[in-house]
């Protein structure tokens, strides 16, 4: 959960729901102040839209014209509660519009649709037009966590969503349009699996941090 890679622009995730929203807004402010063409992106779920930081970030990003993209992965469940149970207005796009943030709905199970929406948002940010809000309609096939009973949904619903799997859909489109053939697709799939397996082995073989580093990058106040 706590992943951060400065060299790749990954500022760090954490266990606080929606915390990345504020971090991305701050990073966008830094990019603006430094005059770079960097664009900050915050990903969060539908449950996180009820965190107060989203309203604050929308407002600041809009009035300061910050180069930030807010992406809500609306998978319809905040752990186990449906979006309709949590909000009176389930049209999440309207949240961004209320703060003057250009907002769009997109089929989150369509690779091309998401890519196009993201490209438009990045262009807006880099051309000085400020923030964007993308609401991607998607789904999670597995439980929210290990041991999730998943009593809040049916197996039939899960299978219906699997029928819209984005990888399968883009693969079929590439085959039908003769961009790739079956052998090329299998090669890509095998390469992806090899990369994931290699990353897992690297992680398992890596040593634990030395105990002397436990208090590095921690302020004196928190010691």
UniProtKB/TrEMBL annotation:
Gene3D superfamilies: 3.40.50.970. Transmembrane segments: none annotated. Its cofactor is thiamine diphosphate. Keywords: Oxidoreductase, Pyruvate, Thiamine pyrophosphate. Residues 2-211 form the Dehydrogenase E1 component domain. It holds the Pfam family E1_dh. It comes from the Bacteria. This is TPP-dependent pyruvate/acetoin dehydrogenase alpha subunit.
């Amino acid at each position: 959960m706590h992943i951060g890679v400065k060299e790749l622009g990954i500022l760090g995730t954490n266990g606080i729901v929606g915390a990345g929203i504020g971090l991305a807004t701050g990073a966008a402010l830094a990019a603006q102040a430094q005059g770079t063409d960097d664009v900050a992106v915050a990903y969060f779920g539908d449950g996180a839209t009820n965190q107060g930081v989203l309203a604050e970030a929308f407002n600041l990003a809009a009035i300061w014209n910050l180069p930030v993209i807010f992406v809500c992965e609306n998978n319809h469940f905040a752990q186990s509660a449906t979006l309709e149970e949590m909000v009176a207005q389930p049209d999440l796009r309207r949240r961004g519009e209320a703060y003057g943030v250009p907002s769009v709905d997109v089929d989150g199970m369509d690779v091309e649709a998401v890519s196009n929406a993201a490209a438009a948002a990045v262009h807006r940010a880099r051309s000085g037009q400020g923030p964007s809000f993308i609401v991607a309609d998607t789904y999670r096939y597995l439980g929210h966590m290990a041991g999730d009973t998943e009593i809040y949904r049916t197996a039939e619903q899960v299978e219906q969503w699997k029928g819209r799997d984005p990888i399968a859909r883009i693969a079929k489109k590439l085959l039908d349009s003769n961009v790739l053939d079956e052998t090329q697709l299998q090669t890509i799939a095998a390469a992806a699996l090899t990369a994931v397996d290699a990353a897992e082995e690297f992680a398992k073989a890596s040593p634990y941090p030395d105990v002397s580093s436990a208090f590095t990058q921690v302020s004196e106040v928190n010691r």
